[in-house]
Amino acid sequence: MEKKKENVFRILARWFVRFFFGLKYEEKWFGKKTEAPKEIVFKDGVPDDSELIVSPARQIFNRFLERKFAVFSVFVVLVMFAIVFIVPHFMTKYYDAFTETTQKDVPPTLSLMRVPKELRDNIKSIDSYGSFSVGLSNDGKVYVWGVGQIGTTGINIKDIPEEVRNKKMAFAAAGQDHIIAIGEDGKLYGWGYNRFGQYAVNDAILDNPNLEPVPEEVRAGLDVSHIKRVTAGYQASAILMDDGTLYIWGNKQAYSNMDKFIGRTNITDIDFTLNYVVGLDKKQNSVVTGTKGIYNMAKTKITSGKAVKMTEFLNGRKINEIRATTTSVCILLDDGSIALVGDFPTDSIDPPVLAEGEYFIDIEAGAYHFSGLTNLGHVYSFGGDHYRQAEAPKVEGAKKLFAGAFQSYAVDGSGKLLDKWGLWGYLFGTDDRGANIAERVVAGGRITMTVGAIAVIIEIIIGVSIGLMAGFFGGWVDIFLMRVAEVFSSIPLYPFMLILSSLLAQVSMTTDQRLYMIMVILGVLGWPGFAYITRAQVLVARESEYVTAAQAMGVRSSRIAYKHILPNIISVILVNMTLSFAASMQTETSLSFLGFGVNYPQPSWGNMLSRASNATAAINFPWQWIFTSAILILTTICINTIGDTLRDVMDPKSTNDK
What we know:
Blueprint (H helix, E strand, L loop, with lengths): L7 H14 L1 H8 L10 E3 L2 E3 L7 H10 L2 H19 L36 E6 L3 E6 L4 E5 L2 E2 L4 E2 L5 H4 L3 E6 L3 E6 L4 E5 L10 H5 L3 E2 L3 H5 L6 E6 L3 E6 L4 E6 L15 E6 L4 E5 L15 E2 L9 E2 H5 L4 E6 L3 E6 L4 E5 L17 E6 L3 E6 L4 E5 L16 E4 L3 E5 L5 E6 L14 H37 L1 H15 L3 H12 L6 H16 L1 H14 L3 H8 L4 H38 L10 H4 L6 H6 L2 H27 L9
Antiparallel strand pairs: 1-2, 3-4, 4-5, 6-7, 8-9, 9-10, 11-14, 12-13, 13-14, 15-16, 17-18, 19-20, 20-21, 22-23, 23-24, 25-26, 26-27
Helix pairs in contact: 1-2, 1-4, 4-9, 4-18, 9-10, 9-12, 9-13, 9-15, 10-13, 13-15, 14-15, 15-18
């Protein structure tokens, strides 16, 4: 009877169910797979049943597939290996030492660019400095999105004051830890963190010489129709009037030149870098900082070209507008061209070369990037691109442009959002230095798994060789080698590493050299386990008939050990190798957690877990250690499960139901 072939989709479904649920559920859902009895072939009058024989390897494989958790564990381990060794090749913007103060301690979120639905078709302005953004509608409504929690202060910036909700706002700006808004009535409103007088005044602020309080004119109320610009920075805020009057206040220690801007009445534009207040006076021929020599060299390209003095570069042209990132300033000239001053990240993208007849009419700045709007309604981004914030999409018909810290938004004339690009958020959050935990988990997993793998290889090379010699030759060789193994087994690993780390602290070592040292130490101290197991197996195998036959034929002892005995005990070594791999990963993790393994900035799962040793971080920022520990636990459990299952299925005395 001809066997009916299964549909390819049914076959794939069978494989999927067996892979994740095991043979029991495959037979339950799809029925037991039966095959027609094979016709017995007679050869020289004797039945040839060789095709009915199942090889030991096939038996082991089939028995392994029957254990669904073991199959799931293989899947998990393979996925982990693929992630930690393949994904880093696609993390082109990642580097170990990356830090970003405005993004530190951000919880897992993908909402940093999620503009509220009510605002998307009615945008008047959007502003951002860190992990949250503030938007203002044409109706004067204020919206806040992103991460609202400000550190451990207990303040949620998304809790907009009731008086702000009930009144129509004309301007809104976001700082690092606060938001200010100006109502249609000219009154200043603010919320968030106010320890440094970012938006309100109290006795402590008035008595502190390092803080500039909110000017009395601002507290009394301003004429909204004459306000030109409202901006906020790191613990500071500023309002610029159309007559050149500047009101600026906040932490003077955050901006060393703030005193040189207080009370000025000849300013036409204002912004904040990370350390300086930058302005444009009515002469419109330089970036004003109050300190000679700062931001006085301009160029048109970031990655190439030589900077020249500002006066030479301008050559009679005037500056219409300035916008500042944390370390640089972009100036918009009266002819629609732009110039760049300051320092840029190494991953920066150059400004575009515009077509003939196209020129910039507006520039906005984020933390490291700039976005520009042209007279043709096109948008371009350039500057720092760590979060892809300088990779603007093709947009037509834009009339307004807004930039957040790591985002940009293109808007049409009616306030409708046309497109947005930049940083959406962080899958696992960020650490205390602002680095993406998901990226560091991937990079750290590669380090941890590499250390574990190399250490096990060293253990196998040393341990199996010594175990073979001790078990095969016996006598004084066995006694001597086993005493050596006992000496190495008696060395306490962690105290030894503590002492060694103290000694090596006086020696200059690169990160890679320290990593190699950890691998070698783990391998050299971990081989006795392989030696004991190999010796025990060899003692049994050397009495076998095939060994006796080889000796009778005059085969060399070394060949008997490595060519005859070793292949027959390799299954036991493979099982122990799997278990030792997980143990080596855990040992590296423990050492790095204690500070004696892989050190920052190079990530490993161990040093990433060190945040759990800080009570404040463990309680307030649990994502900084929970994800890493969960991945480590899952990986080691799955590796141990594979090892235990291999030991069971390779044991001929075990049963399928074990």
